[in-house]
Amino acid sequence: MRKKIVAGNWKMNTTVAAGKELAKDIVAALGKVPKDVQLIIAPPFTHLAPVADVIKGSAVALSAQNCADKAKGAFTGEVSAEMIAGVGCTYTILGHSERRQYYGETSDTLVAKMALALENGLSPIYCVGEMLSEREAGNHFNVIKAQLEEVLFGLSAEQMAKVVIAYEPVWAIGTGVTATSEQAQEVHAFIRKTLAAKFGDLAKDITILYGGSCKPSNAKELFACPDIDGGLIGGASLKADDFIAIAQSY
Ligand code: PEP
Measuring CA to CA, how many Å separate 105 from each of 58, 66, 101, 171, 187? Predict the structure, then answer.
């Protein structure tokens, strides 16, 4: 059974104090969210331990936004999967387009991060998606297929069962432009078909989230698509009311 998930990627936003308030507001509103919808929040590293305290005992799960590609040691400025799991995260986002674009993250790095995340009991939320130029050139399916094959096809079925996919067209992230539900469904179905070619029936159980300017006004139409199981939300996850309204959109 695939899960319904609404995950908030806070990116590099909020102070610790503001992040704790936001987490508190989300926990307080949980009663309004259908029980079968898993809420996940992904604050910055500095916020993970204090936010973990705020959401303790609630149904909200904690995610990091990234993890190191090395287990431990002399890697100044990095934060390991073991450290993230140790403060109470059960998920980590991996391969976000901002990491790929601005920090040179490659498939090789992501294979290492994926292995370490899984070894430490984290469920990776693995992001894939094309740039505008790639879509305009009609190359988006090839780009997404390569992102899936290069990073996920070396996993065992048992490992793959722990992975959540997020389709995030780069041209829709933070731009206010959302993929139409037809465009999103077409790619989600393609992702599921690509995974099925390698993992068989397991692909039916993989949760695939849509990300890219998802907000209360468009979540309902997106989530109604057969292969869209929820959302990875950036900007709209910074307001508890909007985040909760998105989670009510199934
Ligand atoms: C994201 O970056 O994961 C994202 C979906 O951002 P936004 O919702 O702001 O487009």
Answer: 33, 11, 7, 18, 22
Pocket test for ligand 1, best of 214, 218, 239, 242 (most atoms within 8 A of CB): 214
Kindly list the protein residues whose Cβ atom lies closer than 6 A to any atom of ligand 1.
Answer: 9, 168, 173-174, 211-214, 232-236
Q: What is the pLDDT of residues 79-109, one digit of tens each?
A: 999 999 999 999 999 999 999 999 999 999 9
Q: Give pLDDT tens digits for 22-79.
A: 999 999 999 999 999 999 999 999 999 999 999 999 999 999 999 999 999 999 999 9
- Please name the fold of domain 4-248: TIM Barrel (3.20.20)
CA of 194 to the centre of ligand 1 (A): 24
Active site residues: 96, 168
